[in-house]
């Protein structure tokens, strides 16, 4: 992977990162039509913009930007801020998604092509990201909260165990949803969470 540092920010992308990013959006377009990637992109933008704005307001500098299959992911340096401020930055992305979905659910935007996709995707992105699974905002929130009360090694073991339990529960829910004729994408996402948890 190619790494560039610009003004203290580590930018990770390179050909593989950009390729997986665009392939994932092409897959989204093939599953939901041409406006669906725009709706997903808008939901991701709301999510990451909320993280960036909250971090800037609370004094947590941006440390890295990663581009890959799951979109653009930002990371911050929390060493100079309290655990409460770290949790506020982590919660802001999912909260912005859920708030924007709820605010727009009964507006004319849902009549515009892609509007319903944005509302549904934004709500799902916010809700799923709050799950206490490693690699998600919820997993990082759990880690920051537990880390306030126990030593780092013990905190890591506690968070890993909780992450595994929730990954298995999410997988089981995805299997049930799939047997009811739901989308394969939920099942694939649950398998990704299982891999991340172990």
Q: Can you characterise this structure?
A:
The chain is α+β, with helices and mostly antiparallel strands and 198 residues long. It has 2 domains: 1-130, no CATH class; 132-198. It contains 7 helices and 4 strands; from the N terminus they run E-E-H-H-E-E-H-H-H-H-H. It has a 4-stranded mixed sheet. Strand 3 and strand 4 (71-76) form a beta hairpin.
Total individual domains: 2
- What share of residues is helical? 55-70%
Give the class from helix and strand content and strand pairing.
alpha+beta
Radius of gyration, taken over Cα atoms and rounded to an integer in Å? 17 Å
Give the low-pLDDT segments.
Answer: 1-7
Mean pLDDT: 83
Amount of beta strand:
5-15%
Q: What's the tally of helices?
A: 7
